[in-house]
Amino acid sequence: MSTYRISPLAIILTFGLAGAASAADDKNGLGARPGLGLPITNEDIKPWDITILPDGTNLPPGSGTANVGAKVFVDKGCNQCHGEGAKGGSNPALITDEKMTPGDIFSNKTIKNFWANATTLFDYIRRAMPWQAPRTLTDDEVYALTAYILAGNKLIEENVLIDAKSLPNVKMPNRENFIIRFPEKI
Amino acid sequence: MRNGNRRGGINSADIEQIGGNGLLHRRALLGKGLVFAGAASIGADATGAAAEPLKDAEWSTHQGKTIGPKGGLSKYEDLTVRVLSNPKGEPRTQHARTPHHLLNGTITPSHLHFTILHNGIPDIDPEQHKMVIHGMVKQPLMFTLDRLMRYPMVTRQTFVECGGNSALMFSNEPVQQTLQYLHGVCSNSEWTGVLLSTLLDEAGVDPRAKWMIVEGADTAALTRSVPLTKAWDDAIVVLYQNGQRLMAEQGYPMRLLLPGWEGNMNIKYVRRIMITDQPAMTYYEARNYSPLLPDLKAYKFYFVNEVKSFITHPSFGTALKEPGYYEISGIAYSGSGTIKRVMVSADGGKSWADAAVQGPAQDKAFTRFHLPWRWDGQPAVLTSRAIDDGGNIQPLRADFIKTRGQSPKPMTNPLAFGNNHYNSLTCWGVNTKGEIAHVYI
Questions:
Q1: Rg for chain A (alpha carbons), in Å?
Q2: Where residue A69 sits, what CATH number does that domain have?
Q3: A76 and A33 both lie in a single domain
Q4: A138 touching B (Cβ < 8 Å)
Q5: Can you tell me the ipTM of this complex?
């Protein structure tokens, strides 16, 4: 435990009430801490472990290209909300050259003109799309959709294979334009 | 403190006007009897028609309704007051707002708490719900509700405010709407739950870790990156809201509470906390909650809801019926600490008077302020300005928009969120008829 961080409250509970926990009940040396969390293996967590980090951590095996993605986009009904060719419909355009206007703090933020990391695209599509049936796409389908949107926005060449290695290296044009508002809180 | 009378009353001669346009000293609110200096002032104070002889009303003369298992409001109080952005549940975000102009005190009734959900309210069976802590920990752990209920609990008040609250205030012309539209995605409750630090201790956090990526069990699997500093400071896994189990739309059976921080980060239906050394740049932090600046740079990690206040009484939608005495009252809060001082102006900021701050003011919680006011029937502009215990002061609008900008044309959709994290002043213009308009100064 020693190198692991302990909050002040836990210290108070452990030392202040140490006498309350009898040695017989305290096989794990928890002191007065409840210790009621059930140990679980990373293997058992896997089905929920869907977060992708910007450096590519957690990207699954698999791959896809824009060509395949264009077909998945129609097969899975993405076009019903995001429009034909992902140019926008009842929900935002995913492929668009729309620019932000200097001075206009209400400018439309698009994947191309605003997002800092391409990994966000994989994470979000896999987690939340299609809207009415999230987390039903295969990893290959998500890679292909990601490639389709990136290529449509000319952020990668048409035939680039998107996978765990190439995705974190896609350079997003706006990535240098962010200012951390409260660095001291991190 | 001056005290003009030995019986503890206050002599009206002492209650000097301390701000322009009829602001009275907050001392006049002390609750002790006013002793009027002369009969003339009584006549001057009396307003309205003379009283009539009293008689028993119809409802006082027969047995009342039978008490039922569930309490309820009077039928005269309309319950269906939250404005909805998407009442048919079309495939997009849904919002409901708190009608601050109709409420008082500091606690938002649970059923009037604002809520925003990105794919509807999930119907979670509390017996089946699980929450895991994993990633850079010594031992990944799973918690059931049953187990969490046995942990030591803490209770505190705090507000939850959407980063998009007050978005209409970015409009280059003041939008004529009630507080529900202007500042309605902010509410305040008493919350009870388990300190997150207790649970993290149990899992054993790797000292190299800096972030936690928190995720909900809702359909959108909504997820945000939160610095661990906040987890060790005052984050709570909340189980109760205002004494009862969380409302379904507030994250039942458990949610993360990050007192004072951007609403969207307070993950509802929390099911997973992944400890990491880097943020995930999830959809909502990568896009919606990175406010755009006029030079097209954008802030990221705008966690803190900064010091803010607004006058709720009187406010847009209520008219003053006649000149005379009114209490000005409103809400102040800060995501950085406790409200120390609130200043009120009735002349559009030319002069200011200190309002009475209703104590005890609590850390990162709604705090009510009051100030007596005698309206003389002439045009007035009411506004408030709050300061917290860290010395943070609400910026004036001119200063605020210099760095943060405003919309290029007037906002016409009162439900839109064009930008985030507005904390400048809200001003009410009163005309000679007593009508109230939303104005900028």
A1: 23
A2: 1.10.760.10
A3: no
A4: no
A5: 0.89
